[in-house]
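Run folding on both entries below.
>entry_1
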Amino acid sequence: MQGESDRPTDAAAASPTAAATAAAVPDETPRDVDVELLDRAPRVAAAFATGVATGWRRPGARGTLPARRLVLPGVHQDVSRLAEFCSVTGGLLGDTVPATWLHVLTFPLQVRLMAAQDFPFPMLGMVHVGNRMTVHRPVRVHEELTLSVRAERLAPHRKGSTVDVVGEVRVADDLVWEGRSTYLVRGDTPPGAPAPVEEGAPATEPEPGRQLALWRLPADLGRSYARVAGDANPIHLSALSAKAFGFPRAIAHGMWTHARVLAAVQPRLPRRYTVSAAFAKPILLPSTVVLLTGAQDLGDLTVTDRKGSRTHVSMQVSPLG
C-alpha cells in the first residue's frame, strides 16, 4: 500500500456494477456483507507480508470487492500508546480521544482486509488519496469499542480505479465514528466503466489563507509515526527505502498530517463533525510546512510548503446538525 498521491485527485462516483446510479447512493448505505469475527487485532507486519507475497495473483479492476466485513469486539484502548500518539501528532492527552486515533485502531483491520486474496488489488502501488471521518460523539479513553472494516465503491478514475475502505467504531450499539479512506490504483480501470467526468477549473480563485502554524518536520518523523500508528510502509521510513519506490527522500504519512492539523485546531472543533482530507503533493522529510485557514476559518484548512506554492493536504471541517 503506497503513500499519498503526488498530484490532487478526484474520485469518480460511479461503481462498475451500477455506474449510472451509484452517485445517488448515500455514504451511509453499506452493501450486504458477511461478518468475519476476529478475536484479536491483526498483526500489521504479517498481513502486509501476505499482501505483498500474493499481490501478483490479483485480478485488479476485473475482480470484485470482498463481500464481508471484519469485526473486532471488546477493544480496550492502550493509554500509553495513545499518549505517544498524541505526542507525535502534537495533541494533548485528555479524557476523549482524537478522531485520527480511531483511524489508527481500525488500520490493522484495513490491512488484513486488503492483504486477503479475495481483495482484487495488490497492496503495493495503492495510493491513499483521500479520507473522510465523521465524529458522531466524542469517544472517551475508558470506553470499550467494537471496530469494523469493509470495502466498497470500486469506481473508475481518470488515472485508473478507486476503492473505499470504510471503518466504523461502536460503543455498545451506538455508532460513534466512521472513517472512509479512498485509495487509487493507477492504470487499472473497471471494464465497461464510463469515462469519469473531468472537473472544470473553479470559477474564482480561493482567498489567500491566514497562517495558523509553521512546523519543522524532522527526517525521522515517518519512523516515529509508524511506531505508534502501525503503518510501516517503506516510503515513510528512510531515504533509502523510499528511493526504491521512486521518492527522493522519505515522505510524511498523510494521516500524520491529518492528525497534526486536527490537533492544532482541537479546541475549536465542534462536538460532532465531519472532516474530509484530500492528499496532494507528498511532504519530503525533513521539511518545513505551514497550516493555513481560509475565509471560513475552520471550514477550510490547507497544509502547504513554506512559500505556499505547493499544496500537501486540503481539509474541510463541517459541524453535524
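>entry_2
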Amino acid sequence: MRTQKLCTGAVLLPALIIGFSFLLACAEGGLESSPDTGLVPNGSNGDLDAGDTGSNGGDSDVTDTDTDDTDAGTDTDLDTDVDADSPECTDDDDCDGEMVCHDEHGCVDCLDDSHCDPEGDAACDVDSNECVACTGDDHCPGSHICDAGPDSPVCVECIVTEDCDDALCDGGSCVDCIDDDDCPDEHECDADTQSCQGCQDHDDCPGFCQQDSELCVECLGDDDCPEQDRCDDDGYNCHECLENDDCDTGQVCASELDLSSGDPMYFCAQCEQDFHCPGDSWCNAEYECED
C-alpha cells in the first residue's frame, strides 16, 4: 500500500509541475496559433523564424512601418503641389519695389504701359509682362520706328533702306554710305562716320580742294586759271568766257556739254544761235555764221 502511494505521487508531481508552468506561460503572453505546432505560448519558441510568425509577428510590424512611410511621402508631395499652385501674391503690396501683382503669374514688372518708366522702357509687353523700349511706333520719338527684331524691341531710324530719305539703312541708322561704291567720284566712305568724304586740303588734289563739296577742282577763282580765262562758280572749271563781254567784239560766249565730264564748257564764238548772224545767214555746228 505504501509502495502504491509512492508511485502515484511520483507520477502526479511532475504532471503538476508541467501544468503549472503551462498555466504560468498562458497568463503572461497568451497562446498563439501555429500551423506547425498548434497552440504555443507567445515568445516560448525561440527557434521560430519570421516566416513562421503569425499575424502579430515581425512582418506585420515592417508592413505597418512601410505604409506609414508611404503615407508620409504622399502627404509631402501633396503639400508641395499645393505650394507650387498657390499664388505668389494677392495684391501689389505683396510684391517688391514697383512690381505689381498678376492674377496668374504672380509679381511682374507691368500689366500695362502705366507701370513702365516713360523716360526709359516705356512700353509694357503684355506677353512677358516686362517693360521694353517699344511695342509699336507710337512709343518711339520723332520719325523713329519700333524694331521688334530677334532681341529686345528698340526704337531705330530705319529697318530697311526705304525708311530713309536719300540714304542707306545700316544697323538701324540712316547713313550716307556703307562702302566707297556708295559715294560720288573722288569720295571715299569714312568707316567711322559712314559719310562720303573727299579732299580735306589742296594737298589731296592735283589742282585745288573745294571745301564745301570736298571735291578736287580745276580752280577756285579766276586767278587760278591761265591767261584771261574765267573760273565758273558751279563746276569750278576754267573757261574762255562766262559772258559775252569776255569775248572780242562781234563774238558771243557759247557753251556746249563736255561729254567726258558732263560739265558745260564755255568759249567765245561767232554765233551760238541763228539770230547771232546777220541777214539771212545761219549758225552752223562749228558756231560760225554761214550764208
